[in-house]
Amino acid sequence: GEKLLEIKDLKKHFKVGRKQILKAVDGISFDIYRGETFGLVGESGCGKSTAGRTILRLYDATEGEVNFEGVNVHDKKSKKDLKIFNRKMQMIFQDPYASLNPRMTVMEIIAEGLDIHDLVKNKTERKERVHELLKTVGLNKEHADRYPHEFSGGQRQRIGVARALAVDPDFIIADEPISALDVSIQAQVVNLLQKLQRERGLTYLFIAHDLSMVKHISDRVGVMYLGNMAEVASSDDIYEEPLHPYTQALLSAIPLPDPEIERSRERIVIEGDVPSPIAPPSGCRFRTRCPHAMDVCAKVVPEWQEYKKDHWVACHLYNDKYNDEYKKRENQG
Ligand code: SF4
Ligand code: MG
Which UniProt keywords apply (predicted)? Predict the structure, then answer.
């Protein structure tokens, strides 16, 4: 596919207290193709939301690049250029209530972007556009004069979607857009997002905390662990042929629909908690919980490599320089 975004060695560090540094995102690289849904997954605290916000320039990057249509959005830009990125790249938030101003009507919330970006000529057109957008997301024009608290969680998320759509974006980051919703409502919101993608050729970065949530909607998937990217591949490859031990463990935690297979299956249990990103383990950050950890894993940071075509992984098991210990162990059974 054609690259819409190219994320290159992106880092976002935060100062904590006087001396400590939280390396929330610590050097991730991947591409997002035009028209696709890229699912970004990992446990809470792995840096996926921070990555999303840094890609969108809600945070300044500490290091690295986010190239959108070939231009690094983190370079110093003129106000005019920034305004274009601000329009083309939008976000849908996890908590639709917290992200909607409670003192603004739905009309005001959705029209805000139209005004900022001068997308309507007059009040009549503004009103018509908001009514159209409400219809697009499955609400109606009677909703325009109400306030966020008058809506259900699912409806509020639809308002969030309408707000994002108002400025005609190319790229939308959806940060756990359905996690806070009832299960019965989740599918409706996902269906809406997929319909909009088909109709408008949108590109999504869909952030979720587990693989089962992104399975059916993602063309490609990235798995993050403690500020690093562990693996990136097509959805099919991630689910059928996961390379990284962390991905394998995440997958084995998803219940299978067939109870027969489910009972006989071996579960990979990841021991322990996620270490603190302020003092991550040396070498491979997953080594304290990895069932295959070798001596080298404590000493050398695994290289981010394209192990197979379009299948990226950071793990010494896939580097012949380092995997002798593992191969020996495997041969001994
Ligand atoms: Fe496990 Fe080592 Fe691979 Fe890290 S590099 S995932 S510790 S085998
Ligand atoms: Mg988050």
Answer: ATP-binding, Nucleotide-binding, Transport
